[in-house]
Amino acid sequence: MPDTPDRSALEALRADFRARVASARTDAELKALHDEFLSRKSGSVTGLLKQLGSLPAESRREVGALVNELKTEIESALDVARTALTASRPPAGAVDVTLPGRELPLGRIHPLMRVRREVEDIFTRMGYEILEGPEVEDDFHNFEALNMPPDHPARDMQDTLYLERPIIGGIWGAHRRDALDGKPPDAQVRAATLLRTHTSAMQIRYMQTFKPPVRIIVPGRVYRRDNLDLTHTPMFQQFEGLVVDEGITLADLKGTLEAMVQALFGSNAKVRLRPSFFPYTEPSAEVDISCQGCGGRGCAICKHTGWLEILGSGMVHPAVLEAVGYDSERVTGFAFGTGIERIAMLKYGVDDIRLFYENDLRFLEQFPA
Amino acid sequence: MKVLLSWLREFVDVREDADEIARVMSLRGFAVEGIERIGTEHTVIDFEVTGNRPDCMSVLGMAREIATAFQLPLKMRLAGPASMADSSKRGPATQPITITLENPDLCPYYAGGVLDVTVGPSPDWMQARLKAGGVRPISNIVDVTNYVLLELGQPMHAFDAAKLTNNEIRVRTARDGERLKTLDGQDRALTGVGR
Fold this sequence. Notes:
The structure holds two protein chains of two kinds.
Chain A: H1 7-23, H2 27-38, H3 44-51, H4 57-88, H5 111-125, E1 129-130, E2 136-137, H6 139-142, E3 162-167, E4 192-195, H7 201-209, E5 214-223, E6 235-245, H8 250-265, E7 271-278, E8 281-290, E9 307-316, H9 318-323, E10 332-339, H10 340-348, H11 355-358, H12 361-364
Parallel strand pairs in A: 1-5
Antiparallel strand pairs in A: 2-4, 3-4, 5-6, 6-10, 7-8, 8-9, 9-10
Chain B: E1 2-4, H1 5-8, H2 18-26, E2 32-38, E3 42-47, H3 59-69, H4 82-85, E4 98-101, H5 124-132, H6 140-152, E5 168-171, E6 179-181, E7 187-189
Parallel strand pairs in B: 4-5
Antiparallel strand pairs in B: 1-3, 2-3, 6-7
Helix pairs in contact in B: 5-6
């Protein structure tokens, strides 16, 4: 660099810049050019401007104008080059239509919902009506009409969750007024005070609303004051079956359960009934199926008994039929109920009920889509 | 209901082992929740007794059911009140106690006796049977009431005769607003039954 800027030095810089800006292809190259010529500290054009002060006064104005002209040229040339570079790139977010498609992870049906749908399907084929009931219930439907008056010891079998304040005005069955012969749904307008402990509450609501014959399946959530462990959750799902008509017998119950179990677990599954007790059925029976782990020979899963308990059942207690206004001398019925989780655990070999509610994809993805 | 097999066999000569008893009884309405072995000699069968069978909530009750299932005679061992009538064994503090039933429709019969007892631990065999039945041994007085409850299903309670007011026990329902401190140390508010 000469001591004082002169015309030829300026022209040399200009030529150098023009050649290099024409060949710049990237933002980084343009940035480097800018720094080399215009940077505040070490740019060569900036250097020329700084030296203007050492020129004699008569040539300072002329040379100053030339240097400024060069600076403006460089600035606008860089701008043009940057704009051109940006315009030549695809816009942000642009799709490369030549790429192969990306596969999205597909949701699948939850194992509990699979079992529920399977059960609904089995009973729909047998001519049952599938319906749900309210999860917030009153004492009458959950207990009293099911032959569990206040202070009945069997209420202790199910630790109940009560509401802090009763809810008034839930009317189940209003949507089916056609079945009520114009009558209001008597005894269905009660203050709800608890979370239902079983779907059996729906037996009462249905029978209060419809005359026999009855043939229903009621799936749904139920609530009990249980702590989380391998086999308990405070909220779980049940399905309830109820059949009432003239001449219904225990043989009908056993045949129905056999058909259900074989549809769910395969035609080799056997069923056995053991006497038990529920206030709303008489006689009552626990239902076992032959162990799916060992085929009934005895193994760790069935504690070497060959049988696994899957549901509770019985013939509807006459007091229940009378509570809903049926003639217990004329009609009889059977009822059964079980946990959907219980069936899913046996069917899929799951040993911890909590897995169904943790929704860990590593667990859920083991079930077919 | 945890039942010690050797205790059960005092009431019925059942020769079958615990597994076979469990198998037969579970088909007769008494599901078995587990079989527990204590050492090499003792076995405890845990029966699930449904709410309609409170009569089976004792060794005697299960023995009666098992005797029926296996078609065996039930050996009832009835003790008389001989020791209580023996005045020579009475201590100096004992006076007759009056028992008054205010609600005979709820509690038609209440029996009691007065004994002079020195408080101490109960014998080892009794403590072992209580533990097998899931009851914690406390003292000879508490233990014997629990022992009778486990064996015969008869609830009992022991009172300190020196602390009775007017040597009287009144059996009645609670009144509104009454408070009662129960054995677990909790102070409980009671409500009347409105009769």
